[in-house]
Every structure is written in C-alpha cells, then in structure tokens.
Amino acid sequence: MPDMTPVEFAALLGGMVVEIENAAQEGLERATKLVQREVRAELGHYQEAAGPFPAWAELAESTKDDRVRQGYPENEPGLRSGEMRDGIERNVQGRTGRVGSNDDKMVYFELGSAKQPPRAALAGALIRKEEDVARVIGRHFVGRLFGEDVANGSVPVIGDE
Q: Which helix (H) or strand (E) segment is 7 a member of?
C-alpha cells in the first residue's frame, strides 16, 4: 500500500464503514430470503424436531375431516388455501432481519393454543437454516470487503478444519 496521508487514511476507513453497513444490509437481505423460502416450503409438510422444538404433531382426526369437508387435502399441516404461507414476510432494518407474519393463524400454528399443539414453523426454519444463514452473511461480508475470489469468498480461520 502506498504511503497515505492521515486524511487519505481517514477517508479509506470512512469508506470501509460504508462498505460494512452495505454488506450487513445485503447479507441480511439474502439471509432473510433464505429463511422465508424455507418456512414457506415447510408448511404443508410435517417437520422433524429442531433445536428445543418438538416434531410436528399429527393433525387431529377432526381437523382432517374438516379439511376434507372444505375441499382441502386431509393431511397438509398449516396449508389450506396458501394464505398463511403467502403471508410469511421478511424485512431488514439496519442490522436486524426479521421473518414472520401478521396472520393470527400463524401465531396459533407456531405457538399452539388450547386446541392445537405448537408447530414451530418459523423457529424451526431458522434453526434448520442457521449454518446457511451464517455462511451467506459471512461470505457476503468477505466478498464485499476483500473480493469474491478471496478463498472462495471466505477467510480461513486458524485451527478451522
């Protein structure tokens, strides 16, 4: 690196701060899309346990009967018209990314109610995609700051195998 004046060095650091903020925003955009796709794909399919969340319980026979009466397949948990699935939204503000829904049915589906066991779709999707989210954000930072071709977009860590 050529000799820099203190003013040039301060400008370089200021530019890096902007790059870091942009990388955070773009990395979170990509990560929230990943989780949003996962949770939308999960609805309608029974899910295994994820972290502290149990595997999804089988639908009650009365629920299956009601689904069939309404013209829906008998055994697709969380999926009828697709409205709840399509209501899964994401947003990024600053350094916070969110994936969720304003649909009350999704709240009852996720947390359970007196009549229905919890089926952790949102939390389960995040847990299942946790490593992918970290990889997406990490590679995006490295690629943005040092170039996509640096060690395949990642920086090796000493002792990392």
A: helix 6-42
Tell me the two tokens of residue 127. 């847990």
pLDDT digits (tens, 9 = 90+) for 77-89: 999 999 999 999 9
Cα end-to-end distance, the chain, whole Å: 31
122 exposure class (CB count in 10 Å sphere: 0-12, 13-18, 19+): buried
- Six token digits for residue 74: 């008998």
Paired tokens of 29 = 């955009």
53-78 pLDDT, tens digit each: 999 999 999 999 999 999 999 999 99
Rounded Cα gap, residues 24 and 92, in angstroms? 10
